[in-house]
Design a protein that fits this description.
228 residues, alpha/beta, binds zinc ion, globular, Aminopeptidase, two-stranded antiparallel ribbon, 38% helix
């Protein structure tokens, strides 16, 4: 049998009209999917700093990214990473991956031998109203308010896990171009009251505690975001 185009169109219209109202509602927007971008800083020819163990920063950040990715995936959260291996990736590429993912949380992960606990950074860009065409280098400006809220949730979860936190704002090339609630964090040694190091930034048990706190924070941020 041959159907003319107009007959098909008429059939389609009639079919839709016959459906109950609820069935005609649009499916949930793709943005309803909660996506987290994990950016293991440095990599490839960019080793980052060097840790006391002799391990380069790039290796410690990838290890933390892998731990956190598996914790989030186990909780049913979609994760996109900027790297899965020892690859050189420039800041623009990192931001492009994050922006393509339309993420609800973007975390840029660093490691450092100086300081203590976790150093948490939000972009130092001044907040602006979102515009249709945001400048690439300052795309984060439209998201700074949400990013500060994210930093607050991360701070609480880390403190709750007994991890010392330093909050700051900084100009960060990859994060400043990200169009998502974003924070950079640097895992520094854990120190006792006398300042002596009790866990290095690449200590697996310490990384697991930090990753656990970060995963809890992401879940908390998601539940806050879904409130009307
Ligand atoms: Zn770094």
């Amino acid at each position: 049998m041959h159907w003319s185009k107009s007959a098909l169109a008429a059939l389609a219209t009639a079919g839709l009209a016959a459906l109950p109202a609820a069935a005609q509602q649009a499916p949930p927007a793709p943005s309803a999917r909660f996506v987290v971008v994990l950016d293991a800083a440095h990599g490839g020819s960019d080793s980052g700093g060097r840790l006391a163990s002799g391990q380069p920063e790039k290796t410690a950040t990838l290890a933390l990214s892998v731990r956190l990715r598996s914790l989030l995936a186990a909780r049913g959260i979609a994760v996109v990473t900027t790297r899965e291996s020892d690859a050189t990736i420039d800041p623009n590429r990192r931001a492009a991956i994050a922006n393509h993912a339309a993420a609800q949380v973007c975390l840029s992960l660093h490691a450092s031998e100086s300081g203590s606990g976790v150093h948490l950074f939000a972009s130092s860009l001044a907040p602006v109203q979102p515009t249709r065409f945001a400048a690439w280098k300052t795309a984060q400006a439209a998201w700074v308010t949400r990013s500060l809220a994210l930093a607050g949730v991360l701070n609480s979860a880390l403190l709750h896990a007994g991890i010392n936190v330093t909050l700051d704002r900084s100009s960060l090339p990859a994060v400043d171009s990200m169009a998502c609630p974003a924070a950079a964090l640097e895992i520094a040694p854990e120190r006792g009251p006398d300042g002596s190091i009790t866990a290095e930034p690449d200590d697996p048990a310490y990384q697991a505690r930090v990753a656990g706190a970060l995963a809890a924070a992401v879940l908390e941020f998601r539940s806050e975001a879904s409130k009307p």
